[in-house]
Amino acid sequence: MRFAIFLAGLMLTVAQAGYAADLAAGKKVFTKCRACHAVGENAKNKVGPHLNGILGRPWGAVEGFKYSSGKDGTLISLKEAEPRVWDVETLSAYLRKPKGVIPRSKMEFPGLRDDADVTNVIYYLAQFDAEGNEVDPDAVLDALAATD
Questions:
Q1: Residue 121 pLDDT > 50, yes or no?
Q2: Where do the DSSP E strands lie in the chain?
Q3: Neighbours of 57 (CB within 10 A)
Q4: When comparing pLDDT for 40 and 8, which is higher?
Q5: Residue 115 above 90 pLDDT?
Q6: Where does 17-109 have alpha helices with state H?
Q7: What is the separation of C-alpha 126 from the centre of its chain, rounded to a whole number of angstroms?
Q8: Terminus-to-terminus CA distance in the chain, angstroms?
Q9: Cα–Cα distance measured from residue 104 to residue 73, given in angstroms and rounded to the nearest whole number
Q10: What is the pTM of this model?
Q11: How far does CA 48 lie from the centroid of its chain?
Q12: DSSP 8-class letter at 21
């Protein structure tokens, strides 16, 4: 838990410093995600939901995707207990250890170990709005930080 708080503080510091992140590196990290997720123009749901506009999006909000539900620890049960959005802190924790955030998630990915990979893939995802159009990732992250 202390590490998650530290990581959240680090992410906010990085955010205030101009997001020292790399789009090309984030795109490369995202290749690990492409088997199950799509992003960008014409992105469709696959085994996992598309990730367009994920930052600031409520949990379980992609139309047409069947999220894990029915048992304690599934995305829908957690959302019903407490509505949530995908912010930098939550997405960072999820990318590190998905089952640590949503214990009964359908996602089988074990997580990313490298802090830079997490930061870079979040920055990469931030460049896509809900329709898959490319936008300024710094502006998206600034707007999200302003709502915290």
A1: yes
A2: none
A3: 17
A4: 40
A5: yes
A6: 23-30, 75-81, 88-96, 98-101
A7: 9
A8: 19
A9: 5
A10: 0.85
A11: 12
A12: -
Going by the DSSP 8-state scheme, the letter that residue 123 receives in this structure is: H
Q: Which amino acid is at 144?
A: L
- For residue 21 the two structure tokens come to 């992140």
2-18 pLDDT tens trace: 444 444 444 544 444 45
Q: Cα(102)–Cα(75) distance, rounded to whole angstroms? A: 6
Please report, as a single letter, which amino acid is at residue 9: G
Q: How far apart are CA 134 and CA 97, in angstroms?
A: 27
8 A C-beta contact, residue 125 and residue 55: yes
Domains and CATH numbers, the chain: 2-147 (1.10.760.10)
List beta partners, residue 128.
Answer: 134
Q: Is 128 helix (H, G, I), strand (E, B) or coil?
A: strand
